[in-house]
Write a structure and sequence with these properties.
By secondary structure, the chain is mostly helical. The radius of gyration is 22 Å and the shape is rod-shaped. About 5% of the residues are buried. The mean pLDDT is about 85.
């Protein structure tokens, strides 16, 4: 169990990066459309340009929260399975 706990931050970090990539893949389409299409006025383009870093931080935060909750859920399920395994071993001794 201690090895699982020691690998949990690595798992959460890898999951966080995966969720960031998934969310960022289509997370900026509307902002980039406002920057590149000529039908948008200058103020809308400036607003879109200012929103890109904020959107990046929000998506990274959501990905971090999702990674943390997923890691906690998986560790909880593994703990339940280990307790069942230990109870079964004690029952058949």
């Amino acid at each position: 169990m201690s090895t699982l706990i020691s690998f949990a931050p690595l798992f959460a970090g890898a999951l966080w990066l995966l969720l960031i990539v998934i969310l960022w893949k289509d997370g900026f389409n509307d902002l980039f459309e406002r920057l590149t299409r000529p039908r948008w006025a200058g103020s809308a383009r400036l607003h879109a340009l200012a929103m890109i870093p904020l959107r990046a931080l929000m998506l990274a935060g959501v990905a971090g929260l999702g990674a943390a909750m997923t890691t906690i859920g998986i560790m909880f399920n593994i703990a339940i399975l280990l307790n069942i395994w230990n109870a079964a071993q004690l029952a058949f001794k």
